Amino acid sequence: MIIDMFRKKKKYSTIQIKNSSTVTPKKRTVSTKPETQKKTGKKQGVIDPKGIVKCPSCKEVLLDTDIKRNLNTCHLCNHHFRMTARNRIKALVDQGSFIEMDANLTSSDPLEFPDYKGKIETAQKKSNETEGVITGECLITGFEATIAVMEPHFMMGSMGSVVGEKITRTIEKAIEKDCPAIVFSASGGARMQEGILSLMQMAKTSAALAKLGESGNLFISVLTDPTTGGVTASFAMLGDIILAEPKALIGFAGPRVIEQTIRQTLPNGFQRSEFLLERGFVDKIIARPDMRNTLSHILKLHQKEGA
Amino acid sequence: MSTQLEFEKPLLELESKITELKTFSTDNNVDLKTEIEILENKLESMRTDLYADLTPWQKVKMARLKERPTTLDYIKLISEDFIEFHGDRLFAEDKAIVGGIGTIGGQVFTIIGHQKGKDTKDNLKRNFGMPHPEGYRKALRLMKQAEKFKRPVLFFIDTPGAYCGLGAEERGQGEAIARNLIEMAALKTPIICIVIGEGGSGGALGLGVGDRVCMLESSVYSVISPEGLSSILWKDASLAEKAANIMKLTAKDLLEHKVIDHIIEEPVGGAHKDIDVISESIKAYILQEIKSLKETDLKILTSLRYDKLRNIGQYKQSVTL
Predict the structure, then answer these.
(1) Do A229 and B305 touch (CB under 8 A)?
(2) CB distance from B133 to chain A under 8 Å?
(3) Which of A139, A174, B152, B226 fits A146 for a cystine, CB–CB 3.0-4.6 Å?
(4) How far is B35 from chain A (nearest CA, A)?
């Protein structure tokens, strides 16, 4: 009988641990997203200064110039390297059509969070951008749209007050101009240094999308590697049309958090674009070199009568 | 008998001393009235001081207390005739979120909330108040129904977070929460949200967009758990206390940052010390707020809700010419 009691207790405690990743499992708990991404970031590699790079996917040696010509993808195996937001915009929009908005918005460190100011400065220097998203108006093969592209090299594209505000303004601009809005997500989720204010950006951007919907305008959400956390649980999953780049990590919880919760290694391909397509959460997977044409195609089909 | 929190120890020690003294005085027929009175006064002032000035970490502990009243506890006390409904009509019934309709002060509400368990067995059933996508989709079904039948919606928030597991991901945890956010932002009926315990990140926000959002005095609401933050910042989940103290997660912090509208005071020692009193306060708050919300034209109501969300966030806007 006594043995039984102990057994039960043991069982209870394992279950409790299993379920309580938010409480205290070993090391990293909830939302280790930034680190997870750091790891993948390393794996994907920065392009080697000597002009030669080994593709992490097919292991072939590639020329820097070839990769660039293919919009940061491997022309042999279609591996997608990360891309800066600036380069992405350049590759997507009609030359000279991009009018940037709100580049003057910067974080005010509202919670006076330790080391946050320093982190922002480092990120600004490293990425040469003021914040984690670039927004503006543009033309794509002549079709008008507003666009927001998240910058994975700026604090993992995490969403704080500025990112939330800029994306909201992008959506509001689309309502004002009566045109579609396009958002490219690349984010580890909400920015913890702005605490609850970051969380509320999820509600703010979603509310703006409700308004865009009421105005009868299209919202295209494009998911790129990685799209996780609060970004997945808000605008990224709210596209009238949701596109994804091949093999992008897309999920609510980061893979490491899930592994800790369930105490198992995740199956291969879990939380990748192809998995989401199969499960019905993505409309279509589009390789980067085809993205501009696909967007153009969709925008054309959504042209309003008389426009 | 409530679980003792670490910081409540001195209080309990003094309490037991007073009891000891009382027994001693009756047993031995010694008059210790003055001494006891002095000690009792001291106890009272200690109690008031202690609870008036809880640190953020102490509030986290309080918010997670096993004895803390849950959604169903409050519903029982504020609604005379609550009837619970189940299932999302798509996949399953998630017991981590409860919902239904009931009358509060003569008015019918749709009431939805996270539900934690009372003991381990109950918690396994409730998944410790951590919903799967089905929970959010059930909530959505019920709130759309509320809109249809022109009933206001009341949300109780109390979750460590949305569940992080294979099934949850596979069935679109992110999509389920996102869908609720966009629907709640535009729902054409009044919404009141009350954080009663833990407001854990997106899992809390998934039931947390409303015309009025308020928190109980010692509840907490944050973008990540203190353990999660400390493991990211210092690679050590045991520094959660330090994390809690910098992350601005108390009701007072949230009121200051204009994320919530109001704080409901708790009885001295926490909501669990007197659930009747706290339920009365909650009920009074709901009835007071619903009156003006119901009088507001629905178009204006949703546009005010939008403005409220629109204004959350702080940033610098430098002048560029």
Answers:
(1) no
(2) no
(3) A174
(4) 44
Chain B residues whose beta carbon lies within 8 Å of the beta carbon of residue A261: 163-165
* Record: contact B172-A211, CB cut-off 8 A: no
Out of B169, B200, B223, the one facing A258 most closely (by C-beta) is B169
- B137 near A CB under 8 A: no
Asked whether A114 and A192 are in contact (CB, 8 A), the reply is no
3-state DSSP assignment of residue B223? coil
Q: Do B178 and A237 touch (CB under 8 A)?
A: yes
pLDDT band per the 50, 70, 90 thresholds, residue B235: confident
Cα of B84 to nearest chain A Cα, Å = 26
Query: What is the distance between the alpha carbons of residues A223 and A250, in angstroms, rounded to a whole number?
Result: 7
pLDDT tier at A259 (50, 70, 90 boundaries)? confident
Those residues whose C-beta lies under 8 Å from the C-beta of residue A107, and which sit 6 or more positions away, are A116, A120, A131, A160, A161, A162, A194, B315, B316
Please check the confidence at residue B77 and state whether its pLDDT lies above 70. yes
The first and second tokens of residue B305, run together, are: 């809700």
Q: A230: nearest CA in chain B? A: B202
The label of the residue with tokens 């560029």 reads: B320
Q: Which residue of A has its CA nearest to B314?
A: A161
User: Searching chain B, which residue's CA lies closest to the CA of residue A101?
Assistant: B320
Q: How far is B42 from chain A (nearest CA, A)?
A: 36
Please give the model's pTM, rounded to 2 decimal places. 0.89
Which residues of A fall within a CB distance of 8 Å from B130?
19, 22
The two tokens of residue B181 are: 């956010």
ipTM value for the complex: 0.93
CATH class name, domain B60-310? alpha beta
Contacts of B170 in chain A (CB under 8 A): 279
Instruction: State residue B55 phi and psi, 5-degree precision.
Output: -75, 160
* Domains of chain A and any CATH numbers: 26-45+83-301 (3.90.226.10), 46-80 (no CATH)
Q: Is the pLDDT of residue A11 over 50?
A: no
In the numeric block, which tokens belong to residue A282? 């993505």
Q: Chain B contacts of A169, Cβ < 8 Å?
A: none
Of A27, A164, A211, which has the smallest distance from its Cβ to B237's Cβ? A27
B160 DSSP 8-state letter = S
Residue A12 has pLDDT above 90, yes or no: no
Which pairing describes strands B315-317 and A105-107: parallel, antiparallel, or unpaired?
antiparallel
Give A237's contacts (C-beta < 8 A, 6+ positions apart): A221, A281, B172, B174, B175, B178, B179
Query: Comparing B300 with A262, which gets the higher pLDDT?
Result: B300
CB contact under 8 A, A210 and B182: yes
